[in-house]
Write a structure and sequence with these properties.
By secondary structure, the protein is mainly alpha-helical. The protein contains 34 helices and six strands.
Length: 744
């Protein structure tokens, strides 16, 4: 029922707006999870402005746009990129006009020089160029020695070096072993005695005219710095003065910056900058980084043989327009190119920069841009999401029974360790795959169910709260698995041949089948069989109205096409039949809870244990059953992960997955049918985080902030309802179950 307080009063708004308000009042309650996600994404924009853009509003919006576009691409494989045209290369054209001519062979050095100029900035580039211009006769080694010695020379001081010069020159001419011995004796004795001064004066006559205190200080410097280096300082000081500089000159500071070990702009880059700075200043390029990007783009066009003329300007003017008209040339972030040698509006192109990892990219032309789809990204996201969906089912099933199963983490470990043992054990090694795979899955389900039944039994018969018990059982499960894998005396589940603690790999017969290994005929037959079975059960309706057959046929087609699509996107051979198992788990869980007597009893116990007990239902039995089924689903999630992805078990492999399952269940609003979408969203955030970090240069922890905000807004949905003017409803969500669960 729509909240009347949400609707505008009569006469307070135009009828059109009132109608929009009524529509929003009907649909917005179901959109709360989506609105929570949108709000979380919007709120993180200021984080990017503060951390990445340093408060620059426009730059912050640009970073946010780049980050979220990368997040979408990394998760779904979908993105829009521009096609290359002559207008995209206006800066390099202007640069070439000033230079007079530019050959293909010069592009590499030019790219490095311009990139260095862009990284250093115009002001620093000029400083570095001015510094290098003062010492044209020095090679790179001599410049490095001079630059790195500036800090030490400044620490000693010009006055000290000038005063020590006679002593340094004389000691440098003497035998170095004798000088070193005298300096060490001065250091050890802590003073200059007449005898020591006489010995020093024998090597350096100027020492006789110095007082004992001054000579002591000088000899300490000799001992600490070394006479050879001090003599080099004197020579470099002479060189600096010959250039008309003092030791504190800003040019020397610049030279010191580019010769430091941790220099952002090193000497080699600075020398390259000197070759282009005059041209850069003449062209007055507004964005040197964009110019460097254009140069890299031109190099890519040459590498793909779209440009062939050695004269860059001729190639851009005569060859590029033709190449752009006859080919699809897409500019990717990082100045990479995707080239399809066709003028088709829709197609697939192979990207084989690395032949060992060649992938397919689908494209659709959109004017000056192109919609791209990278199947590998979507494949990775789906594989990443599968365990979250199944584990979310586990948590949600507990919620339905009024139980807060926070032990999905431990149940994952319990199920996975049993499954992996059945997978690699020699006892089952001879089994064929059609027996071994189901056996492994059953073993994992059993292990998780057993671990989930323990807290269920303790709650049913002792009143122990499931939250406390499952938290403790998480630690027990993780540590037991850790001991089973790491134990060396005796060896239990450890693979002795492995360099890190892990179990042996499961046998090929126990590994979940990959989609590329399945014949396309299987998907077609599955679709046909689904349609026929559905039509059989609806045969009476179809007999009365043939249109009733449309839905079964549509679903059959969707299954066949969906299977073929999943097979097509499995370009990395990573997507496995765990996806099908996940779909079946969702269907089974929903069917069990809504269509069976046990499911009805379980939900009744969760809603009102007293009423369930009064009506003759066994509350202890249903508590144990709920926790066992919840654990079974968690064990299934762990089994799929170790037999479909990792293929072995490692200590702390599932770190955090069980707790993420709580977040997924919350995001699904405890609705079983929403669980796939919630799990896919969670997997999307994790899968796209890496590309987001790479493209936008922001911390990957930003995804954790987004996840935390989403959970906060789902748990405290009053915030979302207020921000988006969502009316109140009678909808019951998982949060209410939480508060009830603490009361036992």
């Amino acid at each position: 029922m729509t909240d009347k307080t949400f609707l505008p009063k009569r006469g307070s708004a135009p009828p059109a707006l009132a109608g929009v308000g009524r529509v929003w009042g009907r649909i917005s309650p179901s959109l709360v999870p989506i609105l929570a996600v949108v709000t979380a994404l919007v709120i993180t924009v200021p984080f990017m402005m503060i951390t990445g853009a340093r408060g620059d509003f426009n730059r912050g919006l640009n970073i946010a746009g780049t980050a979220y576009v990368a997040l979408l691409e990394g998760a779904t494989g979908l993105t829009i990129n521009d096609q290359v045209s002559v207008n995209d290369l206006s800066r390099i054209a202007a640069l070439t006009n000033v230079m007079g001519t530019l050959q293909r062979s010069e592009l590499r050095d030019l790219s490095r020089a311009v990139s260095g100029y862009a990284a250093a900035g115009a002001e620093n580039a000029r400083r570095y160029t001015d510094a290098l211009a003062l010492f044209p006769s020095l090679d790179s080694e001599a410049l490095t020695d001079l630059g790195t010695s500036i800090t030490e020379m400044r620490a000693l001081g010009v006055e000290t070096l000038d005063a020590m010069q006679p002593l340094i020159v004389e000691l440098e001419a003497a035998e170095r072993a004798a000088v070193r011995e005298l300096a060490e004796r001065v250091q050890s004795e802590g003073a200059i005695t007449p005898e020591l001064q006489a010995e020093i004066a024998a090597l350096a006559p100027s020492a006789a005219a110095l007082d004992a205190e001054t000579l002591y200080a000088y000899m300490l410097t000799v001992n600490q710095t070394g006479i050879v280096r001090l003599n080099a300082f004197i020579e470099r000081l002479t060189l600096i003065r010959a250039a008309g500089l003092t030791l504190d000159a800003p040019e020397l500071t610049a030279l010191n910056e580019i010769t430091a070990e941790d220099a952002v702009t090193n000497l080699d880059t600075a020398q390259r900058i000197t070759s282009v700075i005059a041209v850069m200043e003449q062209v007055a390029v507004d964005d040197p980084a964009a110019l460097a990007s254009e140069i890299a783009l031109v190099r890519g066009l040459y590498d793909d043989e779209l440009l062939t003329n050695d004269d860059v300007m001729v190639a851009l003017q005569d060859e590029l327009p033709t190449a752009a008209a006859q080919n699809l040339i897409i500019r990717r972030p990082g100045d990479r190119l995707i080239v399809s040698r066709t003028d088709a509006a829709v197609g697939v192109v192979h990207v084989d920069d690395d032949p060992a990892n060649a992938i397919e990219v689908a494209f659709v032309r959109m004017g000056d841009s192109a919609l791209l789809f990278f199947p590998a990204n979507l494949e990775s996201m789906i594989v990443r999401s599968i365990p979250f969906i199944i584990a979310g089912l586990a948590v949600s099933l507990g919620f339905k029974a009024g139980l807060f199963n926070i032990g999905a983490e431990g149940q994952l470990y319990a199920g996975a360790i049993v499954a992996v043992w059945v997978g690699f054990s020699p006892i089952f090694a001879s089994l064929p795959a059609f027996i071994h795979i189901p056996l492994v899955i059953i073993a994992g389900i059993f292990g998780g169910a057993l671990w989930g039944a323990i807290p269920g039994a303790l709650k049913a018969y002792t009143g122990a709260h499931e939250v406390i018990v499952t938290i403790m059982l998480n630690y027990i499960a993780v540590l037991i698995v850790d001991w089973l894998i790491k134990s060396t005396n005796p060896i239990i589940l450890l693979d002795p041949a492995a360099s890190t603690p892990r179990t042996p790999f499961v046998n090929p017969s126990a590994q979940l089948t990959r989609f590329p290994a399945i014949s396309p005929v299987v998907f077609v037959l599955a679709g046909v069989l689904t349609a026929l079975i559905w039509m059989y059960f609806r045969r009476r309706e179809i007999g009365k109205n043939y249109r009733a057959a449309i839905r079964p046929i549509v679903y059959g087609v969707l299954i066949a096409v969906g299977g073929l699509f999943l097979q097509w996107i499995s370009v990395r051979n990573a997507l496995h039949i765990g996806f099908v198992i996940m779909i079946l788990a969702v269907i089974f869980t929903d069917w069990f809870l809504t269509r069976t007597t046990l499911g009805f009893e379980l939900r009744t116990v969760g809603s009102n244990p007293d009423a369930a007990r009064y009506s003759g239902m066994s509350v202890p039995r249903n508590v144990i059953l709920a926790m066992a089924l919840s654990g079974a689903l968690a064990g299934l999630a762990g089994t799929i992960e170790v037999t479909g992805v990792q293929l072995n078990m490692q200590p702390e492999f599932f770190s955090g997955l069980g707790f993420d399952a709580i977040a997924v269940a919350l995001l699904a609003r405890n609705n079983i049918r929403n669980m796939p979408w919630a799990g896919l969203l969670w997997g999307s955030l994790l899968t796209g985080a890496g590309l987001m970090q790479l493209r936008a240069d922001i911390s990957i922890d930003l995804v954790k902030i987004i996840q935390a905000l989403i959970i906060m807004f789902i748990a405290a949905d009053a915030i979302i309802r207020y921000l988006w003017a969502v009316p109140k409803t009678s909808e019951k969500v998982a949060v209410s179950t939480f508060s009830k669960g603490w009361g036992g």
